[in-house]
Amino acid sequence: MSKHDKTPKMAIEAISNADWLADLHASAFVEGAWSRAAFADLLAQKTIFALGCADGFVLLQKTPDGMEILTLAVRPDKRRRGLARRLIAYARDAFKPKTIWLDVAADNQPAQALYTALGFNAYGRRSKYYKRAGNLAVDAVLMRLEFEEGATDE
Ligand SMILES: CC(C)(COP(=O)(O)OP(=O)(O)OC[C@H]1O[C@@H](n2cnc3c(N)ncnc32)[C@H](O)[C@@H]1OP(=O)(O)O)[C@@H](O)C(=O)NCCC(=O)NCCS
């Protein structure tokens, strides 16, 4: 039993409310929050889905050979309770990808720790990809997780 198993869990469901996604994203990201319009444009695409609950969500794009995590956000006061892990597991079970890809900022240690704990491996880097205040730029680390036969029971 993991240390999170006794925590009450909110149901994860599909989310189509761009305002709500933008608000939660802004609460989770100190810099670089996405606008309501950006979420609305993304959700208008047939391959893009948001899955989540009141405390967090994951935005995904299905591809022919897998899925990409476009963004992932958990409210600051709800972290380290296993929600991000659960969101990714849910998406994996729903879409059964052979590979999951994502980009993560090189200075985002919590997110890299999460992805490493889930078994993702870094396979590349995009130089100065994320723009930051003060004309700073941070590399993107490209990570992926491959499954032999899509989702399995865990
Ligand atoms: C990254 C983020 C989504 C993690 O959400 P979370 O719900 O707190 O993550 P979980 O509780 O599921 O963590 C699962 C595991 O990831 C690792 N992890 C998560 N956050 C960590 C942190 N701050 N420091 C070290 N390890 C961490 C741990 O191994 C953790 O397992 P444990 O709690 O049993 O030790 C959350 O911190 C967040 O929203 N950050 C801001 C937005 C962001 O950076 N999104 C990702 C963009 S690529």
Description:
With 154 residues, this protein is an alpha+beta fold. The mean pLDDT is 93. It has helices at residues 18-28, 36-43, 83-95, 109-117, and strands at 13-14, 48-53, 56-63, 66-74, 99-105, 121-132, 136-146. Strands 1-2-3-4-5-7-6 form a seven-stranded mixed sheet. The chain is globular, with a radius of gyration of 15 Å. Helix 1 packs across helix 2. It is 27% helix and 36% strand. It contains four helices and seven strands; from the N terminus they run E-H-H-E-E-E-H-E-H-E-E. It has one domain (13-146): Gcn5-related N-acetyltransferase (GNAT) (Aminopeptidase, 3-Layer(aba) Sandwich), CATH 3.40.630.30.
Short recap of the structure:
With 154 residues, this protein is an alpha+beta fold. The protein has helices at 18-28, 36-43, 83-95, 109-117; strands at residues 13-14, 48-53, 56-63, 66-74, 99-105, 121-132, 136-146. A hairpin with a 3-residue loop joins strand 6 (121-132) and strand 7 (136-146).
